[in-house]
Amino acid sequence: MTAPILPGAEPTSFAGGPHGVLVLHGFTGNPTSMRPVAEAVAAAGYTVELPRLPGHGTAVEDMIPTRWSDWSGAAEAAYADLAARCDKVAVAGLSMGGTLAAWLAGRHPETAALVLVNPLIEAAPDDLLAPLREMADAGTEVIPGIGSDIAMPGVVESAYAGTPVAPLVSLLEATRELQPLLSAIRCPVLLCTSVQDHVVPPSSSDVLAATVAGPVERVALARSYHVATLDYDAGEILTRTVDFLAKAFA
Q1: Is the pTM of this model over 0.85?
Q2: Is 226 a catalytic residue?
């Protein structure tokens, strides 16, 4: 039995024009973190899908049995649904949502554009994965959370308070599988990176920018932490995203 959906974490669809945008949230987060992006893009006239990824937006217990295959499968299904209804599709993602967005673009050369905010791209090293695997094997299910890394006082992301270990291992293993796909990304990329990020190091953005084949427009977010879409630089992210998509879809 799953827990009730947290307030604001509901998946949302916006009907719009012939171009579609898939908007993806991060690990242990939910659609609230990317709702401002989805709403701004919808206001610009696009058809938008903002899914709630499996295991997210309810209770951390619901996330413990989920893995990368569940989240990527949901992202693939949402992409296919948009592509069936729209002439062109772009993908926007925060953190793990950025990992999923890059994974989709590497598999779908027809992707029109990517908008990435502090994406997790860099391959996880052994010294990070090994102890996490040991913890999972020893039966540890949840460790302290990584959510709500926000500089603005009083703003809190409705992410889980804990991080499920086995799903985290699955995500980090997926970053290794992602690497060969990066060079297949040929669409334009808007890459927004927080200078101070306590969850995903900015070097992850550097790896993406150095590896993809398409043009990359980089934006440094000087005032925000990891969940920049809810932080001081949110307005700049929204403006840049709408302008970028207008050019990419033209």
Answers
A1: yes
A2: yes
